[in-house]
Amino acid sequence: MPRKISRREFVRTSTAAGVAVGASTTVFAKAPAIQTNTIKPVVVASNNGNVYKNGGAEVGVQKAFNLITKGGDVLDALIAGVNLCELDPADTSVGYGGLPNADGIVQLDSCCMHGPTRRAGGVASIEGVRTPSLVAKAVLEVTDHHLLVGKGAQEFARNMGLKVEDDLNTDKSRALWLEWKRRIDPEHYLDPKKRGQAMEMASLSMVRDGLIDPDHYYGTINCDGVNSKGEVCGVTTTSGLAWKIPGRVGDSPILGAGLYVDGDVGAAGSTGRGEANLYNLCSFLIVEQMRMGKSPKDAGMEALRRIQKNTVEKRLLNPRGLPNFGINFYIVNKKGEYAGVSMYAANYAVCTENGPQTLPCEPLHPGRASE
Ligand code: ASP
Fold this sequence. Notes:
The protein has 371 residues and is an alpha+beta fold. It has helices at residues 7-14, 60-69, 74-87, 132-142, 150-159, 171-184, 192-208, 214-217, 274-278, 282-291, 296-309, and strands at residues 42-46, 108-114, 119-126, 147-149, 221-226, 232-238, 259-262, 266-272, 327-333, 338-342, 347-352, 355-360, 362-363.
């Protein structure tokens, strides 16, 4: 059983979006000439894990890696890493300043899994809390449940001592939402098909006009890591699909989809079109493929092929007959082997003893999703 923490203790260790780590320092050996069982710690994440610093000195994967190698709990370290993206208003795909739903309200999803203790926690459609990953961690720590949603999740967060705000929009996210409203003609509630198309057209035109970073129409941070003892954990946190129907929950807080960790095997998590991932539960699939002996990269490619096979609706296919959306997976196994894989070209973030790096994902297909 994991150690239960009291509410007061949780608040003390978590409210500043920080984590408590032990003072001990684990110095891992340089690569030995003769193979030993030493596991090299590693943190992998979506690309934004090597971009945003929230005004500090470190990016997310670096912060997480440094805490892990100082002996901190792997999940606490990963959450401290993603907190940087959640709190940084420049990241419009996560937490504070995330692009809002169709009503202009920022609704956030997150979940986390702790490999060694086999525990998990999640929140969905939560409003007003900048760091939903900390609420997910509190669900893991102090409840017997996995997933709290909406008002209940918000009340729970308040009871845990986390700050609840009226509005998580920034001037930037609000202005982008207003522009989107203008483009879809809010006077008319179109039939679902036309409304879907109108939303797609408006969003894509905003991407084309350079108002939205293509990575942030969809956008999320998933971060997974392993320490020198082979303890593996993961966390995913997001504002979800921009302009979503209020209440829409994506893959990010759903175990097996946006994240899955098995303490004996490894971790996988995702960013990109959540519905495609939910229909195939790819993070679970990837972990199971690794359990059967596949490398992180091969396991990830299997999941991408599964998504492609099950994407049959014409509206989701590009002129080549392939999925017309991006989806990426970030994967690490218990041995510290890792990979980033994607339907089309994309980058991911890694931190090892060599420091933070942005690497290309292994793409299933050349070209772009729309081509
Ligand atoms: N997967 C997230 C969702 O569907 C969004 C994203 O990662 O871009 O909510």
